[in-house]
Amino acid sequence: MRFVAVDFETSGTDHQRNAPVSLGVALFEDGEVLASREWLIGPPMHYKTGKITREYNIAALEISRSTWPQIRKAPAPAVVCEELAAWVREHDARELTCVAFNAPFDLGWYCELLFLGGAWDFASKGFRRFRSPLVGPWQCAMMLAADRVALSDYKLETVASHFGLGRAGEGHGALEDAILAGRVFWELVR
User: Fold this and answer.
1) Which helix (H) or strand (E) segment is 86 a member of?
2) How many CA atoms lie within 13 A of 189 on its CB side?
3) Sign of torsion, CA 177 98 3 144?
4) At CA 79, angle to CA 41 and CA 60, rounded to 5?
5) Radius of gyration of the CA atoms of the chain, in A
6) Which regions of the chain does DSSP assign to beta strands (E)?
7) DSSP per-residue codes, 125-170
8) What's 53's DSSP letter?
C-alpha cells in the first residue's frame, strides 16, 4: 500500500489571518518511507504593495522550530507549490491517498497554500489558481485512531506512544510529524 503523509506547521490556527510556515511530505510503501521532503514557506506578499498579508504568532513559530529570519528568507508559496508539484510527479504520487494526523486541519492549510500559490493574471484581470498536485482522497489518522483504539486522548504523541512510536526530538517540524502520522496510520490499517 502506497500513500503520502502530509503535515503543516503554521503561524496560527486561522486560515484567513495566519499562514502556513512549513510543509512536510513523506511517500510510504507498506509502512516504509521511500522519499520525503520538507519546505519552509515564505510569507505571502500583496501583489501590488509587497507587504506581508498574514499574521505570525511567535508561540506558533516556536512550536515549529522556525524563526522569523528563516521564514523571511524562505521561498514564496508559489515556489513551494511548484516544487511540491515536481516532487509529486517525480514519485508518481498524484492520485495516492493523502494521510494527515488531523486531516481537516492539514487539508485546510493545503488549500490555503494552493490559494497563496496562485497569482493575479494581469492579462485576464483575474486570479489564476494553482492546480492541486495531490488529488487522491484524504485520510485522518486521528479519527481512525479514535475509532479503533481506546486512549485517554488522541494527540499525535499519545497515539504514537500506544504503538511504541515517537519523535526523535522535542520540537515537531512538519516532516517529522508527517512521518510519525504515516507510521501511526500504517499501524492502524495494516
Assistant:
1) helix 77-90
2) 20
3) positive
4) 10
5) 17
6) 2-10, 20-29, 32-40, 97-100, 119-121, 126-128, 138-140
7) TEEEPPPPS--SPEEEHHHHHHHH---S---HHHHHHHTT---SSS
8) -
pLDDT digits (tens), the chain, 190 positions: 999 999 999 999 998 899 999 999 999 999 999 999 999 999 999 878 989 999 998 888 888 788 889 999 999 999 999 999 999 999 999 999 999 999 999 999 999 999 998 876 677 777 777 889 999 999 999 999 999 999 999 999 999 999 999 876 666 799 999 999 999 999 999 9
Query: What's the CA gap between 11 and 57, in Å, rounded?
Result: 5
Task: Give the phi and the psi of residue 126 in degrees, each rounded to 5.
Answer: -145, 170
Q: Which three cell numbers stand for residue 122?
A: 494581469
41, with CB counted inside 10 A (0-12, 13-18, 19+), is buried
21 and 106 in contact (C-beta within 8 Å)?
Answer: no
